[in-house]
Specification:
With 211 residues, the chain is of the alpha/beta class. A 10-stranded mixed beta sheet has the order 1-8-2-3-7-4-6-5-9-10, with helices on both faces. Helix 1 packs across helix 5. The chain starts with a strand and ends with a helix.
C-alpha cells in the first residue's frame, strides 16, 4: 500500500521531504508533482525500481527515462554541454522542458538511449522537486505518469493513489498539475529539434531551426 504525503507546493514540509527522500533512497518508486505533469521517479542507480516503472507504464527496454536535476551544474555532470548549449539551457532552466543531450560517462549505460548514447535531462521549476533533489543529493530517474493506452498524464494525486496504490511506494500530493507533459528538445546535433510540444513554449527553438 502506497504512503500518501500532502506537501505544500510553495512551503513544503521539510519533515515530509526528508521522509520521501528516504523512501527513494531505499529503492522506492514515487509519484510526484512537477511544473508540468505528475511523474514517476526512483533512485538513479536502482535497476529494480526502474523496471517497476517500465511495468507500470508498459514500456520496453528502449523507453527513454529522464534524469531530473536540481540545477545546471548537476546537469553538466551527466551531459556533454558546449558553451552555446550551456547558454541555451541557462535561458530555459528551470522550466517545463526535457533536453536530449549526449551522455557523459557518469550516466549508467542502461539509462542511455542504446543507439545514440543520449540522455534526457531536465531542471523543473517546482519547489517540492527542488527540495527533494537537494535532500537526495543526486538526480531522480523519472518518467511522465502516463498510464498504458492513455495520451494525457494523470493529474490528480487521489486518482494516482487509487490507480497505483499497490504498485508504488509513495504518492506526493502537491496539488493538481497540468495535463501537459514537458516539451522535448533534442540538442544532440547542436541545432534544436523539437520532438514533443508540451507545456514549455518552443517558438524560440523552432525559429532558431528555420532562421
Amino acid at each position: 500500500m502506497a504512503q500518501y504525503f500532502s506537501i505544500h507546493p510553495v512551503n513544503p514540509q521539510r519533515r515530509l521531504i526528508h521522509q520521501a527522500a528516504e523512501i527513494i533512497s531505499h529503492g522506492g518508486v514515487v509519484a510526484y508533482p512537477t511544473d508540468s505533469s505528475y511523474a514517476l521517479g526512483c533512485s538513479i542507480g536502482n535497476k529494480e525500481a526502474m523496471n517497476r516503472i517500465r511495468a507500470i507504464r508498459k514500456v520496453g527496454e528502449d523507453h527513454n527515462f529522464t534524469l531530473v536535476c536540481k540545477d545546471l551544474s548537476e546537469l553538466s555532470i551527466y551531459a556533454k554541454v558546449d558553451n552555446d548549449i550551456y547558454r541555451l539551457l541557462k535561458r530555459f532552466t528551470p522550466g517545463p522542458y526535457t533536453f536530449i543531450l549526449a551522455a557523459t560517462g557518469e550516466v549508467p549505460r542502461r539509462l542511455q538511449n542504446p543507439k545514440r548514447r543520449s540522455i534526457g535531462l531536465r531542471v523543473p521549476d517546482f519547489r517540492i522537486v527542488e527540495l527533494l533533489l537537494g535532500e537526495l543529493n543526486e538526480p531522480l530517474m523519472s518518467s511522465t505518469l502516463i498510464m498504458p493506452g492513455e495520451t494525457l498524464p494523470l493529474n490528480d494525486a487521489e486518482q494516482i493513489r487509487q490507480a497505483l496504490e499497490h504498485e508504488i511506494d509513495l504518492v506526493i500530493d502537491g496539488g493538481p498539475c497540468d495535463f501537459q507533459p514537458t516539451s522535448v528538445v533534442d540538442l544532440i546535433s547542436g541545432i534544436p529539434n523539437v520532438r514533443r510540444v508540451g507545456k514549455g513554449d518552443v517558438s524560440t527553438f523552432i525559429s532558431s531551426t528555420h532562421g
